[in-house]
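Checked the freezer inventory, then went back to the computational side. Two predictions to log before the end of the day. The first one is the construct we discussed on Monday; recording sequence and tokens without edits.
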Amino acid sequence: MLWKAVISSLLIILFYGATQTNGEKYPVVMWHGMGDTCCFPFSLGSIKKLLEQELNQTYVKSLRIGSNMIMDYESGFFIHPNKQLDYVCQELAKDEKLKDGYNAIGFSQGGQFLRALAQRCPLPPMKVLISMGGQHQGVFGLPKCPSLSSKTCEYIRRILNTAAYEEWAQMDLVQATYWHDPLKERDYIAHSTFLADINNEVFTNGLYAEHLNRLDKFVMVKFLNDTIVQPKESQWFEFYKPGQDKEILPLKESKVYEQLGLKQMDINQKLVFLATEGDHLQFDRKWFLENIIPLLSQERK
């Protein structure tokens, strides 16, 4: 029955040859969230190793803001996103390994920062953007601050609850730049120095929509049991209806759906909505391998 074994082997080779390739993958750029750094071995350091292992040793760049780990950690709280974006745009442009394009994964606030990067910094080209718990419509509440310092968390909470739209808060505190108070929509649009701009809510920047639509995929991951992001629907680009903080306005009914070109991306099947059980940024290896790795596995052209 040797012929049966040969045929069986050929079928296995054909099947796996069609689904698993060893070709060169696009590099991956990662941006960490608040209270994290580029390279902690228990967070992004371990994910970097996993990506390299699963993507044929592709180049993985975990963004570090500044010259050292301390500055990188502090950047998540105290360096304005616009300054961080300018810095990252320059760093990516200098990296020869990224010149033909790259995929990107943002964790928590790193998700909206990378999305802003796609809109403002189209070269080198971003191919697939994966936002892991990113708050694309902002937050209104910070019940559990994922920080190494509880004092820092409490300090941030007090400011956001009382003075988020003061000029000094907008300039000195990262979380104020994406604080979205549905009870004060006019204040938000008038004084937000980051989120209202990248969501085309101050005025419509056609380039933002054009650049975003150049993505092959925009993947948004929502954590179903999230106790940090309020509302958790912001991870799928949804938010409270203006004037209250209970009812969620579906994305397709929001102004940003058309203003930012998300409708066109939806039509072109470029928007991907994923969900997983767990609190903020809590996911297991099996889920990541089954859901995220395939999105990063296309071969470079």
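The second is the one RB wanted added to the comparison set:
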Amino acid sequence: MFRNNYDNDSVTFSPQGRIFQVEYALEAIKQGSVAVGLVSKTHAVLVALKRNAEELGSYQKKIIGIDTHLGVALAGLAPDARVLSNFMRQQSMSSRLLYNRPVPISRVVNAIADKAQVNTQHYGRRPYGVGLLVAGVDETGPHLWEFQPSGMVLEYKGAAIGARSQSARTYLERAFEEFVDSSREELVLHGLKALRDSLAQDKELTTANTTVSVVGIGENFKLYDGDEVGEWLEKLGNVQSSRGGRTGEEAAESMDTSE
């Protein structure tokens, strides 16, 4: 088994200034199925590709509602995402109890960033092996943030995480100028097109493996799952990947168990 003298804990730097356990956590995100987020002037949308470990098993949850104005999509270790989402719910409830208002998106995102970064400073802890796309609406409008296990958070107009997410990012980079003025339906279709571009050659979007969530100004966070996704897929039309042959990365991705 491969051993590295500098990866026994998350507080030791290598001679090159690297923290290997943080890099391992980032690798766990790359092994998870893809999640895409995008934002307009009025709405924020999350779409994700669900995965089942075997044919007899159910598909794993990929989008988690935090509050009526806030939700997250995950890629990586689902148990770690559950811990962070529960912490975000606590922050949201505290804001409503103490200040009688929904928690600002930037505040709750920075709270989980601080929580994650502490794990890279104390011996005996490990970084969270999950990446999150946080979408929500507050007093300043819709927002989309990406969280990484190192404790870094950045706000985006469009973002994608997980296996083969580069294909989805390529679509987002090509079309992001249209997002600002897009309607609710157009924004969801942009997200599904980006998700479709990340599929392996023999895969397609279905009501079983696709999940969509929408939140907007004056519209509560709503999760569309199962048959509810059917109407979006009908509007999309072509649900099959147009990508070429199966790569080594795709073959490896099909055998992992991250979400």
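For RB: Strands lie at 35-39, 43-49, 63-67, 70-76, 130-138, 141-147, 153-155, 158-161, 210-216, 219-224. Residues 20-238 form a domain with the Glutamine Phosphoribosylpyrophosphate, subunit 1, domain 1 fold (CATH 3.60.20.10). Let me know if you want it refolded.
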